[in-house]
Predict the structure.
Amino acid sequence: MAGGGDAMTTTSWLPLIEEYLSVRRGLGFALETPAYMLRDFARYADALDHHGPLTTELMVRWALASRSTDRAQAIRRLGAVRQFARYRALLDPATEVPPAGLLGRLPRRPQPHIYSDAELAALLDQASRLLPRRGLRPQTYVAFFSLLACTGLRLSEACRLAVADVDLNVGVITVREGKFRKARLVPLHPSTIEALARYAAVRDACCQGPGRFFRTEHAPALQKDTVEKTFGRLRYRLGWTAHGRARQPRIHDLRHSFAVRRLLRWYETGADLDRKLLALSLYLGHAHVSDTYWYLTGVPELMAIAAERFERFAQAEQGGEL
């Protein structure tokens, strides 16, 4: 590990960033987005030939240099580099750590878009039209988006699935590195097993050699950035914008839609939501069950459930005072 004052003599900030990421990942943090941001910061600092201790002025300048017009992006960028600065301050006391909230606070978590059945059908139809029409690529994307919609897997989790991680005999997916490096088992519905088996047969007939569960003829694995670009093109063809919606539909909203649909189904059947929410939290791989409870207050489709739960609680409290 680098000692104090290394920032004064280093010729590049990238090794220090990689050292920090290695330490944090050793503690169980995935850091996909922060890693991308911090490497960008390192390139920025190197381009300015900055070799002294980190300064608040340098970090703020980089945070505000984002091409995004969303003010929240600058706040996220400063938050990522601030964590790095806190780590560097342990090794180099001259390091400045920006005050919390220096650029403001992140806005309230935005309401997700919940896909309708018609939207899901339209997305899969457009995916089936990808080129080459008779190739593996369109079938891969149909199977990929379908799996996200019916299991709530994260995009990165689905991209990393190895062939051995999808046990179609038992009907279980093993997610080996979810958020915070947490592994979990994801049981599959029989209809999902059948669909994945059909895709796997086509994939194996088309491609030989090692590769991930989801792949194309020319790529042994789907890459997160590639999937997002492909989804963006499909969204454009479908004419999906934020107009008339909570927000412009995203891939991650497939996960939100799965969670909301499952909670609504349980509510309609009179299930014990407290127990079911815990099960759903484990199934989705949430770090905290509070992340799952958020759906009850952050999504209009479920606000009625939260209101009813509060009404029952208030009535019970009132009855206890009598």
